[in-house]
Amino acid sequence: MALSPDLVCMGEPLIEFSQRKEGDGKTWSQGFGGDTSNAAIAAARQGASAGYVTGIGADPFGDLFLRLWREEAVDTREVRRNADAFTGVNFISYDEHGHHFSYIRKGSAASLLAADAALLTYVAAAKILHVSGISQAISGTARDCVTAAIKAARSAGRQTSYDTNLRLRLWPLETAREVIHLAVAQCDIALPSLDDSIQLTGLEVPDRIVDFYLGLGPSLVALKMGERGAIVATRDERQRLPPIEVSSVDATGAGDAFDGSFLARLLAGDDPFTAGRYANAAAALSTTGYGAIGAIPRPEAVRKLLTR
């Protein structure tokens, strides 16, 4: 087995319970979430070699995640089990305004993960390291671990990818802005979403937001705009990708599906704009089912949509 997969994602997995929209709203379905875990699964479903770095509890929910990752061909060599902590949980409820998240995560095993030599060696051997704002926001320990991982990847000449994924329940906006933008400045690929970026940058025009993130240092920015599509930009070229119409029922995890699919196609040799069109379609298809990973598509479905 290779020292590391091509793509290593790092962060916090969450056992997910989704409220069904049908009926009286008292029915909940168990699934899986956690932004970077979703991205790793999305990448693996597109055929990429992907692995995950995290901590999980020595509990039944941790067992479920290990089974899931193995079924999805996500490498788990650097998934650490902690007998003194728990696997985080996320509840997704719905109303006329969309979906809402409620968490049990403070003190989770992922939030206690610390960098050591084996973890950093694993990260440094991958072609791309992918992390997010949530990966850093869950605790000071996790923040330090992500910082060390980015440094290890950069020192080894590897690419780094960052999704801003802002969660203001986890930290104040000013702290988030400082930490996230410092991390983005150390990365090669920035994957912000429009809603997050408006809060983080104070800008509202998408092209100005793209300019802002390119100005921090990344050579590639993909701004995810939900129902408005996406913008993919390098320092030399920029393309706006129109939205793709599908029968959406739940947008949970769509940005993560974009991230994993985008990185998978970059690893496969696509140029950023071809990868962006593919990821845009994969993200759209991921909204056609409930939960974060259930509707993440396989390549045949993505390519069928792209040729529609």
Helices, strands, pairings?
Layout: E1 7-10, E2 14-19, E3 28-33, H1 35-45, E4 50-57, H2 60-71, E5 74-82, E6 88-95, E7 98-104, H3 117-124, E8 128-132, H4 133-137, H5 140-155, E9 159-163, H6 173-184, E10 189-190, H7 194-201, H8 206-216, E11 220-224, E12 230-234, E13 238-241, H9 254-267, H10 272-286, H11 299-306
Helix pairs in contact: 1-9, 3-5, 9-10, 10-11
Explained architecture:
This protein is of the alpha/beta class and 308 residues long. The protein has one domain (7-12, 35-86, 113-306): 3-Layer(aba) Sandwich (UDP-N-acetylmuramoyl-L-alanine:D-glutamate ligase). It has eleven helices and 13 strands. It has a nine-stranded mixed beta sheet with strand order 5-4-1-8-9-10-11-12-13, sandwiched between helices. The chain is globular and about 50 Å long. The model has no long low-confidence stretch (mean pLDDT 95).
Could you give a short account of the major beta sheet? 9 strands, mixed
Strand content: 15-25%
Mean pLDDT: 95
CATH fold description: UDP-N-acetylmuramoyl-L-alanine:D-glutamate ligase
Strands of the widest sheet, in order across it, are 5-4-1-8-9-10-11-12-13
Helix-strand string = EEEHEHEEEHEHHEHEHHEEEHHH
Shape descriptor reads: globular
How many DSSP E strands? 13
Summed up, the helix count is 11
